[in-house]
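Run folding on both entries below.
>entry_1
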Amino acid sequence: MLKRYEVIAIVKTDLTEEDIAAIMDKSSNIITERKGVIAKAEKWGKRRLAYEIKKQKDGFYFFIDYAGDGSIVTEMERNFKIDDRVLKFMTVTKEGAVTKEGMEAEVAVAEVKRTQIRIETNDNASANRDDRPAGDARQGRPTFRKAITREDSTTKGE
């Protein structure tokens, strides 16, 4: 049985995309080398920090949801502590235990759902483009009411 974990890490914003990808890949490799299963890995992007951390006001967030044993957590946290590019991290244990097969099935179902959502959004976007009249560049903008002139407006008592 494997335990479920979520880790959120904040890295410096002055890093390149390759550096951020390298940090995420290193974390993913730690999980897979120790026979863990990754359910989801997401880049949340650059965000303003609530308070200054290591003289940084902004941070780049990433999130990994995985299942494994305690040795994965200790190794990932050890690597985050050593790496100067990581500003802060937090690992949370999720409720319940799962099997490796159950986790892999969950990952497959989530991937199918993501693919369906992408297809639906692409279909909706192309359908919206087809509905628009060819010369109407102002589609989607707010419409303005006709200006009210003195003759149009009448007040009580006049």
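>entry_2
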Amino acid sequence: NEQSTYTIEAFKRARNEWPWSGVMVLENYSPSTNLNDPRWGFAITTQNGNQKPIASDIKHYLSSIQLLGAPHGIHAPNSIFAKFGKNWKFSDLGADIPQFGNTSLNFTFEGTDVGIIVRRGDYRATLYVEIDSKPANMLPLTANGESYQILTSPDLANRVEIIHVATNLEMGKHVVSIRAERGWNQWAIVGFSIGNKPDISTVIIALVTSVLLFVISLTYIALNNVLIRKYINQSISYLNNRAHLLTTICFGLLFWMSAGITWGQKLPQLFYKQNELIPIAITTISALTYYASPWLIISLTSLLTLLILFMIRPSIALAMIALVIPFYLYPKAMFERVFSTTEVFTLLALASTIARQILFANKKSTEISYFRFKLSNLDKGVLIFGIISSASIFGASEVKVALTELRVIIIEPILFYILIRITPLNKKELIRISDYFIVGALLVAVIGVYQYILGVNLIATDDGILRMRSVFGSPNNVGLFLGRALPISMAMAIVPSSYFSRMRRTFYAFAFLLMLTAILLSFSRGAILLGVPFAVISVAIYYYGKKSYVPIFIISILGLILVYIFSPQLRMNTINNQTFGPTFFRINLWKSTISMIADNLWTGVGLDNFLYAYRGKYILPVAWQDPNMSHAHNFVLDFLSRLGIFGLASIIWIIYTFFKHVSIKIKTTNDPIYRAITIGFASSMINFMTHGLVDASYWFVDLAYTFMMTLAIIQCIENTDISVNDKSN
């Protein structure tokens, strides 16, 4: 009858158009006790409680339905729609991949989305997945075009999770085919998840069109009404004024410390009247006491002393931070926690600056001119970079590690940058920061060479070659850090003798040679073949301009001789080996990173989440021997994978603006020392880019601090008032 036909058609429509809806209930089986209720016309039973013919018609229809595949929902491995090879084992835990025999399975489903529920952990296994004999559209691809899913968990912890393998399929029947490689005794396959997404494109188009028409109509009415137009203009003016006020307040709060930092007249005059050696010596002794003392009370007392000393001489605080940059891996234990000396000194310097501003905001000193801070393009770039990095936390899957990297590699280096920018520095103080940085790098080289002579703390390659790692965990980090300091020492070593004493120039030359030796003993190919040559050549070009071809020729000859001598240690014969070895793994790492970026182009995977995304999803099966890669070994891919396209854009803007500052300064300065510092730090940035093509660039504490210090020092050279420089050196 008509009621049966109408109801069955409703069932069909709901099944075809709303398969995602889950359980649906047919209303009005037996409506109410009120016999006059009009809903009785739609009831399945009569008022006497007997079933109408529609009941049997619905039963007949439902019994005739034959499912072509698993419907929307969660399905166990023993589902009738799953077909496993004969060697698979089953239990309450799920299905276990066989060690021998057929490791394939097929699962038929009806829907637009499909996922596999898997048990992941600290084991190696790979699922190769196809949907209707095509690669799954939510999984990365191998070089052969196969889509795959790694079962190693990102953090190596045991977990059960749904892996989404395909989405936006056409509505209807599909077959997911899975071939497993390894993973036996793990009960890896827990189930399947099927979803159906309704087609809402028509609704979206209609909604967007309606909104646009509404906005256009409202705009037309507003613009043609005098009162409304006047009100809008007044509102815009009001908001504009408030926006300017808010911007002024924000920047004022950010840099308010610079307004009142002067030399307080009532501070101990010892540090002003005496030679620079006294405050430097006391600060150094306090720092060593803090780090070396096994007693908490002495360490805390030393920290308090450092806080006072940093408040009296903020420039020494900045120099001390520059000195300890490479030693962040040797923290100080306090309160059952460990704290990096770099981090502690940065926070002490910040606290001392704030305290100085509060205590002596109304004091004026004639010993140094006020520092007038103006937000530069580099400042804006650093600020935007910090904001983008902070925002990436919201998209990170491993939030805890992302927050740690935000603190130690983004916020604290930017604080160091801000402290250098807002602290009034004269010429001697600016040179001191650079010198202390070189001293820190020299200590790294001395420790490394000493260890190499003794044969301790070395890493042996597969070929038996011993590589120096000094204070770092990897020899490559030696090449990365010393590669940033090397061009600075070189640029300072060739300053004309009339501006630097022989002893100072000898110190820079000695530092250069020892750092070069340490880099060679690290056998870092990225440093020796890319970073150092380009940095050294750039020093020559900046210094000699068009006449630089002679020093470049000499440098090139010496470089080729060194490469020839050390070619066995540098494993030159393996550079072009794309089937095994470092080059093979690096190329596969870049391929995996490109897949990662393609899936996260706008936001990236988040700070310090590269390792987890790479190890848990994007590592190519052929690169299984090297799963613990924490960065992309290419500065472009690094910033893209972590922060997305906006993060890369911000760093490109920073580098472009930096070299614009450098170009102007080198052309306009008449001070050979400022010119040497500018050339040194510019060449250090060139090392950042060239060595960063094949290794890390920013995402280590020492490299992040060095990067931010480089940006700040170049601007301080521009902003330093040369007329008040003391006659240093």
